[in-house]
Amino acid sequence: MQDNLSFFFEPSSVAVIGASANPDKLSYGILKNLSQYGYEGKIFPINPKSAEILGYPCYKSVNDVPEDVDLAVIILPAEMILDVLRACGAKGVKACIIISGGFKELGEEGKKREEQMEIAAHEMGIRIIGPNCVGNVNTYSGLNTTFIKGMPAKGGIAFVSQSGAVCGGVVDHILNEGIGFSHLISLGNEMDVTETDMIEYLANDPETKVIAAYVESIRDGGRFMRVASRVTRQKPIVLLKAGKSESGAKAVSSHTGSLAGSQTAYSTAFHQSGVIEVDSLRSLLQVAMAFDFQPLPENNQAVIFTNAGGPAALLSDGLDVHGFKLADLTEETQQQLKTGLNPAAQTMNPIDMLGGANEEEYAFALRVAIEKSDTGTLLPVLVPQALVHPVAVAEAFIRETEKSHRTVIACMVGKHSIDEAKLLLHQNRIPVVDFPEDIGKILSAMLDYRLYREQPSGQKEMQSGTKKKKAIEYFSRKDDKKFLGEAETRPLLDLYGIRTVAGMHTHNLLDTQAAAEKLGYPVVLKIVSNDILHKSDAGGIRLDIRDQMHLDSAYRSLLAEVKDKCPEAKLEGVLVEKMYLEGEEVIIGMKRDTNFGPMLMFGMGGIYVEAFHDVSFRIAPLDMDEIHRMIDETVAGKVLRGLRGTMYDVDAVASVIHALGQMAVDFTQIQEIEINPLKVLRSEKGAIALDARMILL
Amino acid sequence: MQDNLSFFFEPSSVAVIGASANPDKLSYGILKNLSQYGYEGKIFPINPKSAEILGYPCYKSVNDVPEDVDLAVIILPAEMILDVLRACGAKGVKACIIISGGFKELGEEGKKREEQMEIAAHEMGIRIIGPNCVGNVNTYSGLNTTFIKGMPAKGGIAFVSQSGAVCGGVVDHILNEGIGFSHLISLGNEMDVTETDMIEYLANDPETKVIAAYVESIRDGGRFMRVASRVTRQKPIVLLKAGKSESGAKAVSSHTGSLAGSQTAYSTAFHQSGVIEVDSLRSLLQVAMAFDFQPLPENNQAVIFTNAGGPAALLSDGLDVHGFKLADLTEETQQQLKTGLNPAAQTMNPIDMLGGANEEEYAFALRVAIEKSDTGTLLPVLVPQALVHPVAVAEAFIRETEKSHRTVIACMVGKHSIDEAKLLLHQNRIPVVDFPEDIGKILSAMLDYRLYREQPSGQKEMQSGTKKKKAIEYFSRKDDKKFLGEAETRPLLDLYGIRTVAGMHTHNLLDTQAAAEKLGYPVVLKIVSNDILHKSDAGGIRLDIRDQMHLDSAYRSLLAEVKDKCPEAKLEGVLVEKMYLEGEEVIIGMKRDTNFGPMLMFGMGGIYVEAFHDVSFRIAPLDMDEIHRMIDETVAGKVLRGLRGTMYDVDAVASVIHALGQMAVDFTQIQEIEINPLKVLRSEKGAIALDARMILL
């Protein structure tokens, strides 16, 4: 099926169904755009009332076109489109772009209309972009099926958007700025072709160097992750997700009619697939431009060349926030710099050549820095000065850096005086920002991507084999209970090799005393009851029992408190467990996301998660390397690795996360499972699940 | 002295000393700028070699000018300026702007030159701006002593900058954009007139509605805070501090030659004085514009009017990040909206009028929302569409909102198509952003300022009276020790009413046993030694001693470990203290900042401070309201207020912070004092300093 997608971008012929002769109509705009940017295929306006539009003879229907039609662009009232689609099928049209709205985005009736259309398209083997979109642009074939004013320059950015308006806004931003696109694709309601299809297609498009995507929702999260993980090994995907907040999600769902799903799952999926998520439309454009124009930075070192201290300081602050540092220039480099600059110039990094610095001085400083191997990314900064010519300085940037293989990003602080210089730099593949603070974010996105690419791609399949076989029995014996407490969850943990705390289930004080003796003090008491899921809320836990006298009183007070708090609960004795005094407690959980699948969670729980948001997520299946990265993202992970002086058994934690992921992959009926706490002992001593619970489908 | 400052902005006459007849020289540019923007005073170029420049007769020296000279702008080689300054003094010049560099920023020799100049200026009563600056602009008097290309429009923003280049870049950004300035002031090396002087002056300038400042360092932190606290009660100060990171600080100090100081102290001082600190030059301009153009938002509610869902979703996400919410529109409001919009329009907030929405629909929706009282800030969004005219839509925004008293910020996504509409909106005092995500930050700055203004201004003087008197004795008895341990710090805490743990100093096991009996178990043992500041590192602490047997072994092991770890230390017995099992431990500290004074610190310590940065700061003196805000800023404060179920004695914590602040104000020889931990008991039970240490000057 994927091959068909090329008809959207390189059709031999295009019919515009609903083309109008009235220049105030959008459909006229589409025909005009099709005609004026060098598209070499045939163009057939379909309009029963006109003889010709813009010099193209009109046809009453697509069937009347005397030649083959590869692509139809349809802009007609929603209720007419089903018939037109059938006509397209009869004609042998390969692909349709349905511009018109009036479908799913309007509610029930529209949704029905869209479903009928979907069935028809599928029957006839026609691929559809839209409905409710603004069309697409391929700058290399000259195809432009949008009514957007202006054509982006040729370039390496493929822009894919679930919002037509964002396409329009973006084109308006980049027009005449020297920023080039390979494709611009508005996907509308994604009745057929989705963002994932497009990403898969663009991966193989030789003109596309970077895929920039604006996304509101992804329907098949699993497939997205598989495709994105593959594509990001070839070229970067930069993505802006709208609707991340509750307000934003409301805004998204009200206008697309689609459910946004868990935002944490989205961000986790992006991160894990190597997709670079940005938080603003400005960053989406800036980061995409940098990926298109420049090689990836080799490290987090940068050198600043400036004619003013202030903007260099702001740039430095911005670099620091994003983990970039100013490279130390050697004494030798500095001495060499002094030979060609103002004697008062600063040759420490930032290299401040002072206000009067001209193109010669910029060229000299860049040349010196490039010759030396110690400087990393090159960041020339110019603040317009009365006697300095921005274009001449821009030419120096271009001339000196074009053979350097270094990453270069320029900052030209201003607007009116630097327009021409900025255009020139962009045309020569040097990205320009007009505020210095933007550079840090761009560079860190590039370096993150480089580091991601350097990770081995890993074996992500989880094959549990025998564990799964044994566990099938466990699940087959289950009644229809949905909420399983510790006692019922423990056998499954055992089957998957997760160590649980040594303990005994007892039903009276005497047995409890004996059990405690056998396990050895200190011990813990926990209530056992099918009716109590949160034992601590029910007063059903007693910790740190040191001797038998203490045990007796704890046993009695526990039963009394539980009976008082949960008078309805049927009690089934207590669990006596060995208490571990040392070790750090963490939480490991799995919650199945409807869209992306089993989402694993790691953190220290309590205020660490709630107030400090110190928690990390991954979506199973995943490999051990990825699990270790997951752990290391958190302060909890740093604590386990010795932040407070003691090293804990991180490998054991990773194994538990892996086992939980495996369980979730093996048994889709598990909706949630949580080990809370997992007691992590010192290095090589293991980790023990002290409590656990599970929710089944 | 402050009165003299008006000569910088409204002089009756200006001499340009060093004016050149060569249009390629900066000094020619200054004369040109002075001549061309409506300045009505007299202009005297001083140039011994030319007869006239730009039609103004030249004078050989300032002494030769036949009339009074209020202001001299000096642009000459550094070594000539001292003599010129003396001539200015003889002539009775009131104020000088020294453009030339070649002073402190170049190192020792330049510094000496600047000091001589400072003495001379002071002797002659001349106020100086600079050296090493680009001059100033007063748009209302038409005075422009800079060589920057272009004159900002008249407006309410006074821009004060310690970087001349930032002034130039900013003017380039706002020129022809309809953003207006009252003043633009480049301060250079601040030999005499400082940012604080300017802020004080601008507070009384009727044209200035908001002060925007770019700052690299502040020399007199205490005065800055006093002035800023007063000024921010009248008008907002928006400030960008460069050099916040290590790299940035290096960049700043290398080009100004001034030490940046503690960045935490800067941010604390800004926050506490009601100064709105922003993190980028873009925000500085956007936030200042919004303050100038618009009233403050009444609350954190907003309503979005849009012709496209995508940008509205991005805007909503941006609002959410900054604590703003979409207002719920009542059923009635929504019904009324439906009567005038596209039937498919979304009347929930965001109000999405769909792609075809024109000026009439925007006007209608704004009218409805303004009539209803439930909508808060108004945020109209336009994405350029083929058939919609941005200027007409902008006119609708202006017409409908001008009498509303609501805060209005418009978003026009794009660049080329919206230039004209943007200019029109700015000229009519509606701020425009071209990326939707920027609005949240702007609004939250405005609301923060509103909330600050609503706080009572508070009695910040700390007058300890009798406490101080008694403590004078404590300090007078001190030897020359700089590092004081717990035993020596405790008496001072007692004097200031800070409860310390009940304890006894003993010198042998028998006395220790007796002491423990008297205090009641559990107890704590701590080593006493002048040579040991960090007791726990030395193995000098034993916790949770439950009975005498435990005490005996703890006593012996403590002495053995300390002797082993610190063989050189002279031991002076142990401290036996009551142990408190319940309660939360926090840290309270004071560290004197060389620039801003006594900086108080509150947090939970350990990884909470180091990894989660959960710590808050204030600079003494300060009042109780401010101390409670300080506590509430942290998660530690939320824990004390019951986050984990138990309420602790926050008032007691506040009293301890207050007492520490008072101590620091009373005795400037205290460099640092730390109570770590302060054990906070349950509500109304108090708080107890368990350990403390102090560093004296």
Would you write up a description of this structure?
Two copies of one chain form a homodimer. With 697 residues, chain A is an alpha/beta fold. Chain A folds into four domains: 5-208, NAD(P)-binding Rossmann-like Domain (Rossmann fold, 3-Layer(aba) Sandwich), CATH 3.40.50.720; 299-432, 3-Layer(aba) Sandwich (Rossmann fold); 502-579, 2-Layer Sandwich (Dna Ligase, domain 1), CATH 3.30.1490.20; 584-696, 2-Layer Sandwich (D-amino Acid Aminotransferase, Chain A, domain 1), CATH 3.30.470.20. Chain A has 23 helices and 31 strands. A seven-stranded mixed sheet of chain A has the order 9-8-11-10-12-13-14, with helices on both faces. In chain A, strands 21, 26, 27, 28, 29, 30 and 31 form a seven-stranded antiparallel sheet that branches. In chain A, helix 10 (309-321) packs parallel to helix 15 (439-454). At the A-B interface, helix 4, helix 7, helix 10, strand 16 and helix 22 of A face helix 4, helix 7, helix 10, strand 16 and helix 22 of B.
